[in-house]
Amino acid sequence: MTEKLQILVKVEPDGATHEMVGREAWALQNLVRAGEAGCTPIDTPGPRWSHYVFLLRKRGIVVETIHESHGGPFAGTHARYVLRSRVRILDEIGRAA
Questions:
Q1: How far is the C-alpha of 21 from the C-alpha of 33, rounded, in Å?
Q2: Is 97 a residue whose pLDDT tops 50?
C-alpha cells in the first residue's frame, strides 16, 4: 500500500506550524524546492494547481500568481506560482504519489 505524502511545516517568522497531506503537501514541497523560479502546470505537472494554491492561501501561506503567455499549437496563458512566505519543512512522512 502506498503511503500518502505528509509534511509538517513552519511558516516564518510567526512560527505557525501546519500539517499537510497529499497533493497540498506535494504542491508546497515543490514550491519550496523551486524557490524564485516558481512552478507552472507545464514544468511541474499536477491536475489542479490552482486548487492546491487556494488551499495553501486559506492557511495564510502567501503564493504569488504570475500570468505568462505561451505559444505552440495551444497558445494561450498559464500561471506561474511563486512561494512568497518563508516556509521551513520540519518533517516529511511517506512519499508523493
A1: 17
A2: no
How far, in Å, CA of 47 to CA of 52, rounded?
10
Identify the residue whose cell numbers are 505568462.
68
Q: What is the 3-state secondary structure (H, E, C) of the chain?
A: CCCCCEEEEEEECCCEEEEEECHHHHHHHHHHHHHHHCECCCCCCCCCHHHHHHHHHHCCCCEEEEEEEECCCCCEEEEEEEECCEEEEEEEECCCC
Give the neighbor-by-neighbor strand order of the sheet with 6-12: 16-21, 6-12, 86-93
Please report where in the chains the cell 504570475 appears, as a residue: 66
Query: Which residue reads 511545516 in cell numbers?
Result: 9
d(CA 80, CA 21): 22
For residues 55-62, give the mean pLDDT: 95
Threshold 0.70, pTM exceeds: yes
Answer whether 65's CB lies under 8 Å from 39's CB: no
